[in-house]
Amino acid sequence: MSNTILVTGGAGFIGSAVVRHLINDTGHTVVNLDKLTYAGNLESLTSVSSSERYSFEQVDICDADEVKRVLNSYQPDIIMHLAAESHVDRSIDGPGEFIQTNVVGTYTLLEQARAYWNTLQSDKKDGFKFHHISTDEVYGDLPHPDEVEPGTALPLFTETTPYAPSSPYSASKASSDQLVRSWLRTYKLPTLVTNCSNNYGPYHFPEKLIPLVILNALAGKPLPVYGKGNQIRDWLYVEDHARALVLVALEGKIGETYNIGGHNEKQNIEVVHTICSILDDVKPKESKYAEQITYVQDRPGHDMRYAIDASKIERELGWTPKETFESGIRKTVEWYLNNEGWWKAVLDGSYQGERLGSVS
Ligand SMILES: NC(=O)c1ccc[n+]([C@@H]2O[C@H](COP(=O)([O-])OP(=O)(O)OC[C@H]3O[C@@H](n4cnc5c(N)ncnc54)[C@H](O)[C@@H]3O)[C@@H](O)[C@H]2O)c1
Fold first, then answer.
1. Of 34, 57, 77, 137, which residue is the catalytic one?
2. Of the chain's two ends, which shows fewer C-beta atoms within 10 Å, N or C?
3. Are strands 223-226 and 232-234 parallel, antiparallel or unpaired?
4. Considering its fold, how many domains does the chain have in total?
5. What is the DSSP string of 15-27?
6. 29-34 and 4-8: which strand pairing?
7. For the chain, percent helix, then strand, then coil, each to nearest 5?
8. Does the reported pTM lie above 0.85?
9. How many angstroms is it from 288 CA to the middle of ligand 1?
10. pLDDT single digits (tens) 63-109
11. Structural domain contains residue 147
């Protein structure tokens, strides 16, 4: 059965991977609702934007009237809500936008979705789903191997781990997750939530660690690493995340939460060294790229370790990641080498330039 799926934030890093997957690999129709902030880029969608199954609406999720217009005119069967402010460092510098988009925007979308859902006839109403896309950062951080006795089993985030967000970004996402769950409990709006670990891959805005390290390495600039670089993240290739999200949107059980992760726990410094050695291999120069690594003062409140237990989505929906970290990071480095046009346009446009290559 073909559905109409409204994707918010479809011009962003993960949203554009979801839209490309829906258009290229399924028969579903996509409406991309995006405000086009500095992080939104329609160039990430050129491969699918001429499809008859694709439409774009430049709309702010905080604008209730515009959201209402889009819902009523396209009559979606499913909403996949990815639109957000997503960069932790920006949330520390200026939390206001994060509260506005992630909390007020999600509230606005929920209210408009509820009003729209109440107008639907029984079959369409029964099948409707609101899928909220969130992060593992809502759970706070986990013990680091350096902090525990050798041989101690290290815990993972499960769907029942209590929320303990550390940054304005993760607190705003935690708030939005809880709003979504309360709209199910109070108003019976059929919602689902997913919480995912750090993503990497093509079309990633170069303020985040992996694309920034690749581009700074190529430009001969310093490769900034926070603190000792021993913070651990569980990396997932963005196309594996996009497949998981579409699977949850179509087959997930209403009211459930699914954690999504790649079983790839890596210290930031290991990630930077891996990128440097791939570049040494595919684009060698006189000196080693790792000589450009520079340690800088750590971020305030920096979480030390994130790691996901993804066994529920694997068991219940049959999802597994296709990429290992080694295969995905090589593909990513090669993508940036082969897609200079995309990242040059991003850098020439709105890129702020001074940001560290931080991970969430
Ligand atoms: N990047 C990660 O590693 C990661 C991991 C887990 C979960 N997430 C979540 O996934 C979602 C997408 O993340 P991303 O990395 O693709 O983010 P991104 O910053 O690359 O893209 C966000 C998109 O949302 C749009 N947007 C922002 N404010 C908007 C508004 N008010 N109205 C409409 N559109 C707006 C932007 O224009 C952009 O296209 C976010 O909700 C994020 O919290 C991200």
1. 137
2. N
3. unpaired
4. 1
5. HHHHHHHHHHHS-
6. parallel
7. 45, 15, 40
8. yes
9. 34
10. 999 999 999 999 999 999 999 999 998 999 999 999 999 999 999 99
11. yes
